[in-house]
Amino acid sequence: MTELEEFSQAALRLGAPLSAQALEQARAYVAFLLERNAVVNLTAETQPRAVYLRHLADALPAAAYLKKALASPDSPAPRLADLGAGGGFIGFGLKLAWPQAEVTLIESLQRKFEFLNVAALRSGLKGLKVVRARAGLGPSAAFDAVVERAVAALPRALDIAATLLKPGGLLLAYQSRPPELSQPAVSRALRRSGFSFLENVAYRLPGETRQRCLAVFLYRSERP
């Protein structure tokens, strides 16, 4: 079985099946990322299998959750943001799994921003945009959902996401374990930023025994 076939099977298990076209676009993206990696230093991984199954697949639980939470006839093209996109794993994964969504990759580093721009153009994925902005310092936006992985500690991530979401929007924050909501810094950030906690989504990537966690928050917009 090829790594692309493993990735396709992982997508099914994670609730975000991919079309043949999406798999070909994933293959092209991973090939270009590894080609540029030696120059741009996008990831520590050097093998396609690890990129597919440890990084690109990591976007799929978020895509599956958001499709269930946001998909509707009234909003066929929700606006999603990948905060601190880096090499683009989460943003590209979201777009591949949900082609109708408008996905914006937000990245502050020039070298990664330039890579993402070229990768987005080469992919042919319509509705995939790249914005260069430092997290929390760019203009406010009105996204339906923000996804962040390893951008900042949870309190800071909550503060940043509050500037990007519309009322009723969702933040999906990747965590190594369910967050301790009673921790003073987290509880203060929840009050300050206008978020309420919804749930933890547990999942496993291929070949792993430990559970990973997506912490889901609802942006109310009203500050206490």
Layout: helices, strands, pairs:
Blueprint: H1 3-13, H2 20-40, H3 48-56, H4 60-70, E1 79-83, H5 89-97, E2 102-107, H6 110-123, E3 128-132, E4 143-148, H7 154-162, E5 165-175, H8 184-193, E6 195-203, E7 212-219
Helix pairs in contact: 1-3, 2-5, 2-6, 4-5, 7-8
CATH topology value: Rossmann fold
Largest sheet: 7 strands, mixed
Terminal-residue CA separation: 54 Å
- Helix percent reads 40-55%
What is the chain-wise order of helices and strands? HHHHEHEHEEHEHEE
Output the radius of gyration: 17 Å
**Low-pLDDT segments, ≥5 res:** none
Sheet/helix structural class: alpha/beta
- When the domains are counted, the total is 1
CATH architectural label: 3-Layer(aba) Sandwich
Question: Could you give me the name of the CATH homologous superfamily?
Answer: Vaccinia Virus protein VP39
CATH C-level class is: Alpha Beta
How many E strands? Answer: 7
How are the strands of the biggest sheet laid out side by side? 3-2-1-4-5-7-6
Q: Roughly what is the average pLDDT, rounded to an integer?
A: 91
User: Count the helices. How many?
Assistant: 8
- Tell me the strand percentage band: 15-25%
Question: Mind explaining what this structure looks like?
Answer:
- There is one protein chain.
- The chain has helices at residues 3-13, 20-40, 48-56, 60-70, 89-97, 110-123, 154-162, 184-193; strands at 79-83, 102-107, 128-132, 143-148, 165-175, 195-203, 212-219.
- It is of the alpha/beta class.
- It has one domain: Rossmann fold.
- Strands 3-2-1-4-5-7-6 form a seven-stranded mixed β-sheet, sandwiched between helices.
- Helix 1 packs parallel to helix 3 and helix 4 crosses helix 5 (89-97).
